[in-house]
Amino acid sequence: MSAIYTATATSTGEGRRGGQVVSSDGALDLTLAVPTEMGGAGGGTNPEQLFAAGWSACFHSAMKSVAAAEKIQLQDSAVVADITLLPHGEQGFTISAALHVEIGGLDQAAAEALVAKAHQVCPYSNATRGNIEVTLETTVA
After folding, report:
1. Most C-beta atoms within 10 A of its C-beta, which of 10, 46, 48, 54?
2. For residue 91, what pLDDT is reported?
3. CA torsion angle for 42, 48, 50, 51 (degrees, to 10)?
4. Is the pLDDT of residue 61 over 90?
């Protein structure tokens, strides 16, 4: 398989506990911090937020692409990704994901079908399929 694109980022310092993450092109340059909900000081981003941002953007693009290929007109749409960090017994931690998709201009059945198709083509969905719990919720506006 030939690569289409490779994103490269480097984490330095203390990782999620006050480290830095920088992309190879410098477009991403963030300080990491443990969220206050986990007993940290906050004040920076964390890997779960980065994963949520990436998956929501990727899924939204996949959905728009499927809609365009099927000539489906969307009035408005948004994808909210919730990435939850969970204890995983003696193996450390795992994550779960919930994708909340909001779509205007379609009925519920058509919106759910579109979301299901997007879930089949989204690279993040494909990468996590069978590895973590993923919940899809579709709301028609």
Report:
1. 46
2. 87
3. -170
4. yes
